[in-house]
UniProtKB/TrEMBL annotation:
It holds the Pfam family adh_short. Signal peptide: none annotated. Keywords: Oxidoreductase. GO terms for molecular function: oxidoreductase activity. It comes from the Bacteria. InterPro entries: NAD(P)-bd_dom_sf (IPR036291), Sc_DH/Rdtase_CS (IPR020904), SDR_fam (IPR002347). This is 3-hydroxy-2-methylbutyryl-CoA dehydrogenase. Belongs to the short-chain dehydrogenases/reductases (SDR) family.
Length: 253
């Protein structure tokens, strides 16, 4: 599918992977709907790209339904969804203070998994009502997993579980939505220079980068965006999670 002229929804678009992806897609000619819980950040990204920004809680069914309806009315039916909204929480299952917080675990699952599914279900419904393109395709959904889905570390049970579920969601969703001409992909990024990691001390960042075989550095958010763009353009990519990690494999801790 050619990106130019089509509406692309990007969540987590105020910063990091989401903002970089919105920039890459906009440069390819997409009309950007930038979504984030940080509405001011979403609007700032959108202004930069000539799109529209929306304050959205991806875990809220009504909020997402109303926002996608507004996007459809204001920009047109979305053909692209890239879900980058996510959070991380580190905590051992059994720590010095006792068992892990169930509320904290549930919050990570709620944002990273349920929020991703919430966006997918609503946007896929909108896509399914669009006229098919020449090839029969109506749209593509790209979700964000993580290498933690495959090599979860100690203290990251919630994050690994949420991202593992996003990975597991990819194939059944692709199979189900195929009849509508909608493809579903996931990207599993490794260690990227996002706000989540950039706040760490330089020596910690250098240590993380040194564990990546090649290139021996943190990933650049725009590299995630370029992979998302390629997925949009390559119609044979469907039902798969693609690692983007410089061949790094996470250790136990």
């Amino acid at each position: 599918m050619q990106v130019s002229g089509n509406v692309a929804i990007v969540t987590g678009a105020a910063s990091g992977l989401g903002a970089a992806t919105a920039r890459v897609l906009a440069a390819a000619g997409a009309k950007i709907a930038a979504l984030d819980l940080n509405g001011d950040g979403a609007e700032q990204t959108a202004r930069e790209l000539g799109g529209k920004g929306y304050a959205v809680d991806v875990t809220n069914a009504t909020n997402v339904e109303e926002t996608v309806a507004a996007i459809t009315a204001e920009l047109g039916t979305p053909r692209i969804l890239v879900s980058c909204a996510g959070i991380v929480h580190g905590e051992r299952i059994v720590g010095r203070e006792g068992p892990a917080s169930l509320d904290a675990f549930a919050k990570v699952i709620n944002v990273n998994l349920i929020g991703t599914f919430n966006m997918m279900r609503v946007v896929a419904d909108a896509m399914s009502k669009a006229d098919p393109l020449e090839s029969g395709e109506r749209g593509i959904i790209i979700n964000t997993a993580s290498i933690a889905a495959f090599e979860g570390q100690i203290g990251q049970a919630a994050y690994a579980a949420s991202k593992g579920a996003v990975h597991s969601l990819t194939l059944p969703a692709a199979r189900e939505l195929a009849r509508h001409g909608i493809r579903v992909m996931a990207i599993a990024p490794g260690l990227f220079g996002t706000p989540m990691l950039s706040g760490l001390p330089d020596e910690v960042q250098d240590s993380l980068a040194a564990n990546t075989p090649f290139p021996q550095r943190l990933g650049k958010p725009e590299e995630y965006g370029r992979l998302a763009l390629h997925m949009c353009e390559n119609e044979m990519m469907n039902g798969e999670t693609v690692r983007l990690d410089g061949a790094v494999r996470l250790q136990a801790k």
